[in-house]
Design a protein that fits this description.
By secondary structure, the chain is mostly beta strands. Helix content is 10%, strand content 42%. It folds into 2 domains: 99 residues, Sandwich (Immunoglobulin-like); 71 residues, Immunoglobulins (Immunoglobulin-like, Sandwich).
Length: 204
């Protein structure tokens, strides 16, 4: 009889251990990756999937390198708990489409107090040169008259400052063909070249 009681006690102890393990996923656990904003790419590849127990969250494919002041489409994230789809919501975003840099969007899935986060990195770039066009002007003149440079009109997608410099000259006293080159440079170093051609006619 003593042996039977001993085996019963061991069996109860094992049952309690197994039960405790099954209930473990109710513990509140958070997995979070915090990455500061920088102007350079992360040194390692950012994970696209995160797992916490039976809770999984992953990034949906998306276009995450975009031009400044353009429209960013957030592809979001999806999640499952025990292979059952659950909500993945955006809980944080540092994205600023008006400035170049690397930003982060954080998504979270939460079930029964269990949390799992994942980060999407969005890179805002400026690789579009300024858009320049010639202002109307009188560019065919007679020798000895005055030529007026009416310049150019410039637009840039960054909405920032654009520096315009000119190269070339026009001699109103010497008949011939002349060229003025305008260089339009934005704050990211993108440059557009625009040309104006001037004709000086001889006096008949």
């Amino acid at each position: 009889m003593k042996r039977k009681r001993g085996w019963w006690a061991i069996g109860l102890g094992v049952g309690l251990i197994v039960l405790s393990g099954c209930m473990g996923w109710f513990d509140s656990t958070t997995t979070t990756t915090n990455v500061p904003i920088s102007t350079t790419q992360p040194t390692t590849n950012a994970p696209t999937t995160a797992t916490q127990g039976e809770l999984n969250i992953w990034l949906n494919p998306g276009v995450d390198t975009v031009e400044i002041n353009s429209v960013f489409v957030d592809s979001g994230a999806d999640a499952t708990f025990n292979s059952i789809p659950v909500a993945a919501v955006k809980i944080e975003s540092t994205l600023d489409m008006t400035k170049t840099g690397i930003y982060q969007i954080v998504y979270r899935a939460e079930v029964y107090g269990q949390k799992c986060d994942i980060v999407r990195y969005v890179t805002v770039i400026d690789e579009t040169p300024p858009l320049a066009s010639l202002n109307p002007g009188i560019d065919t003149i007679v020798e000895g008259s005055v030529w007026v440079d009416t310049g150019i009109h410039v637009l840039d997608n960054s909405l920032g400052d654009v520096i315009v410099t000119t190269e070339g000259y026009v001699s109103c006293a010497v008949p011939g063909e002349y060229m003025i080159k305008y260089l339009s440079s934005d704050e990211s170093g993108n440059v557009t070249e625009t040309y104006r051609y001037i004709t000086v006619l001889p006096v008949e």
